[in-house]
Amino acid sequence: MKTTSPKSTPSATSLPKCPTGIQGLDEITGGGVPRGRPTLVCGGAGCGKTLLAAEFLVRGAVQFGEPGVFMAFEETEKELKANVASLGFDLAGLVRRKKLMLDYVHIERSEIQESGEYDLEGLFVRLNHAIDSIGAKRVVLDSLEALFASLPNEAILRAELRRLFRWLKEKGVTAVITAERGREQLTRHGLEEYVSDCVILLDHRVVDQIATRNLRVVKYRGTLHGTNEFPFLIGDDGISVLPITSLGLNHKISGERIATGIPRLDAMLGGRGFFRGSSILLTGTPGTGKTIVAANFAQAACRRGERTLFFSFEESPNQIVRNMHSIGLRLEPLVKRGLLRFHAARPSLYGLEMHLATMFKEIAEFQPHVVIIDPVTSLMDAGTSSECRGMITRLVDYLKAGQVTTLFTSLTQSGHALQQSEAAMSSLMDSWLLLQDVEGNGERNRVLYVLKARGMAHSNQIREFLISDHGIDLVDAYIGASGVLTGSARVAQGALEKAVVLANQQEAATLKREVERKRAALEQKISGLRSDYETEAAELRRIAEQVGTRTFVLGTERTASGILRQADIKVAASTQSKPKPGRKI
Amino acid sequence: MKTNKTSRATQALEKSLTVRPTGKYVLRLFVAGATARSRQAVLRVRQLCEAELKGRCKLEVIDICQQPKLARDNQIVATPTLIKEFPRPVRRFIGNLGNITGLFAELDLMTKGEIAV
User: Which of A163, A206, A214, A220 could form a disulfide with A225 if both were Cys (CB 3.0 to 4.6 A apart)?
Assistant: First the structure.
């Protein structure tokens, strides 16, 4: 969380400004409070007026080389030093080095008795002396209204205050004057009447039992300024106003891809996992394994030697380590090696901005490559939905600017995967994975799919998500007429398909046998017919032979009888040769 | 025994109240520059010291414009301021002392402030 050094705009046309150095405030005011003029900071009790004023001085002294005078009307020097020391401001050191002058103005009402006309020259002299002794450029009067309680004559007081502000302007110091918020006007005693150049209103309000601090620039003469209410927080390093609008969309972008720790999921994401520096939303109903996916991602990052910061808003670190152990993920050694750090806090511990501040601080400290927020929906309970969106926007922007890959898990209720808030949040996310329960067949099964993944080809398939002793497995789910089949239904479907194949095989075998048999029968029939034919042919031959023999015999007999009768021997001889071709048949 | 003790304490208190404080009055007047108001205040106090507290009054007049550090050390906001350091309790009178009846009462003076300027 580096304070961006705001550019003061010294151009002749615009009002000269004095950077406050307070994170975000200079962005809203376009460079700071008006230089050489008084600025009024008003607000109710406990909204951080004194702190803002103190930070204005400290930053001025440390960052901009402008010494300052703090005139306190309510807190003693000692109290003030102690109070702001908790924000890391070393007032005592600054006072020693003559960068800062503290003056506690105390008026004991009971000691005072008015006896005639007076003025506040004493105050002027003190202030003048303090300014001159260190060459102060900045002055804080906190809070001037205490004078109204301690000095009896209001008419004199008002005249003197008017003179004081004029004097401050003449002196050329940039002053911050704090004042208590009034009922119908900005300040209780109408100080805004005198300080008209810049008025900043602080507000600490409780909505739904959640306290939020807001800052608004009510008026800033002669300059443009953000007019909205901006949430601000008081963290360990002072005030930071978090204007959403001040963050531009100009992050550096990386083309590097990082593995998710689940090979099959990488495959679904174009084979190489997420982009580095992208923000990933993992939505799921209770018990769908969001934390497990997150832990896998963390482990994969740590194995690559990248630091991972795990914000847990539901489970304690030890519990996560134990639970992940049960699925074969050993996170403990990673924690010991300093690659994995857990930060666990209940969402209700403090308000949203405080969460954001702590997260920023942790991130700045640990410099992680991967951040996991589990679950981001818990934070939603800590603020109204618009605040949450603002906060998440800021968080996403901050992380993206640092090229940190972030995995947000998000819990959805009532089995409905897409809720309004998520749809709003999802626009900030680059990738969106959905884990869902599929009910049916008397069981609940988990499925995972990629809803969106900006800038990469990704699978449109639903995968069944199995958690076993040795981690996560993604399995193809069957998609049938009745929807997605998972769990035992998927197994049953598998068995069914196997049975069908087997039956087909058997049927084919039967058919083959049948054909075989038919062929055998056919052959048998053919051979039968052939033997029939052969028998008949043989018969024919035999008959033909018989016929031949008989003819020959007949001829011979005729010749013989002719010989016997001694008649027509020659005729007989010629006819004898005629039946010869008939024998050949 | 208990009643004895309380009655003795009460007596002591009553006695101390009747006795006038001994020792000198210590008065310090803070003014800012040579203004009309400053002059009025200085004159009034000087007059008072001479008329009523002659010899048992120590008056110090301080110009905070010349010694601004003293303004801070003494928590001066309004000017002129007259601080009665002694006798206790400490009292601060702010203003040009145009109205000094209160001052007289505080200083435990019998005269009712009939000093002419």
Answer: A220
For the question of residue A74 being annotated catalytic, the response is yes
Give the pLDDT of residue A483: 65
**Contact at CB, B98 and A117, closer than 8 angstroms:** yes
Residues of A in contact with B35 (CB under 8 A): 121
State the DSSP code for B1: -
Contacts of A494 (CB under 8 A, 6+ apart): A478
pLDDT of residue A399: 85
Dump pLDDT digits (tens) for A105-150. 988 888 888 888 889 999 999 999 999 999 999 999 988 888 888 8
Question: Residue A479 has which token pair?
Answer: 């998609």
As a whole number of Å, the end-to-end CA separation of chain B is 57
CA-CA distances (angstroms) from residue B10 to A116, B6, B7?
Answer: 38, 6, 5
Closest Cβ opposite residue B94 in set A106, A112, A130? A112
Tally A–B CB contacts below 8 A: 102
Report how far Cα A167 is from the mean position of its chain's Cα atoms. 54
Give residue A474's pLDDT. 83
Token pair in block for residue A105: 């103005």
CATH 1.20.120.140 describes domain B22-106:
no
Using the 8-state DSSP alphabet, how is residue A246 labeled? Answer: G
- Nearest residue on chain A to B78, judged by CA atoms? A120
| CA–CA–CA angle A529, A530, A531 (5° rounding) | 95
What are the extents of the domains in chain B? 22-106
Q: Of A32, A39, A42, A38, whose CA–CA distance to A4 is shortest?
A: A32
A172 vs A16, A440, A516, CA distance in Å? Answer: 12, 77, 115
Q: What is the ipTM of this complex?
A: 0.80
- pTM, to two decimals: 0.64
Reported as a single tens digit per residue, the pLDDT across A378-392 is 777 766 777 777 778
The residue annotated as part of the active site, out of A77, A229, A314, A332, is A314
The answer to whether A314 is a known catalytic residue is: yes
Q: Which two tokens stand for residue B104?
A: 């007289």
pLDDT at A410 over 50: yes
Nearest CA in chain A to B93: A113
Contact between B78 and A128 using a beta-carbon 8 Å cutoff: no
The answer to whether A100 and A136 have CB atoms below 8 angstroms apart is no
The pLDDT value given to residue B25: 82
- What does the buried/exposed string (b/e) look like for A491-526 if buried means 16 or more CB atoms within 10 Å of the residue's CB? eeeeeeeeeeeeeeeeeeeeeeeeeeeeeeeeeeee
**B contacts of A117 (beta carbons < 8 Å):** 37, 95-96, 98
Q: Is A109 on the interface with B (CB under 8 A)?
A: no
* Residue A105 touches chain B, beta carbons under 8 Å: yes
Which of residues 122 through 151 in chain A touch B, CB cutoff 8 A? 122-126, 128-130, 147, 151
